[in-house]
Design brief:
The chain has 182 residues and is mostly helical. Helices cover 42% and strands 0% of the residues. It contains seven helices and no strands. α1 crosses α3, α2 crosses α4 and α2 packs across α5. The longest helix has 20 residues. It is extended. The N and C termini lie far apart (62 Å).
Length: 182
Amino acid sequence: MDSTTHTTTTVEFVDWRAKAKAKLEAEDKLFKGGRAAKSVQSYVLRTLLGFVDQEPRFAEVVCNTQRTFSECCAAVVNNAGEVLSDLETYRRAVQFYFPNAEVSFSMNIKLTGAPPTEAEMQAPATVKPEDASPNVPKQAAPAYTTKPASKAEKKTDAKKPAKKKKETPAEDDMQLSLDGWL
């Protein structure tokens, strides 16, 4: 080989996120499914689009999966019974494409503003529960005190739970978030 001859290798960049979004959106337009599958269709689509946008490895798997989005929604509602939680819906959708995925959920609640007034806390509920069936006992109403606890009592009772040590994610872990979707 002489010094003027050389070879170059071209590496093709694949935008898995864009390809996965296009695949899901095209399959959504051709959606075929029963009433139950149609009831989760838009939510599952929106969530999967968010997940493929967050993680290119997940997007690549969605692109390379031969099964369709219609089949995904059918798998989500299969043997679901009458009620299916959001978490279980998204777990089934993710595991349709990525069967070995572990799906967990974390919720943070931010209390803002002033606490409710005494009148607000003592006001009756505006919506009453339906009568429970005979084999399901009604839950007892929690006992509320009308007098707020003193600051000294609050300090002794308010024990902070021990903080959980954050796990260090493994190199091949993926973290997908539902922030803003629920």
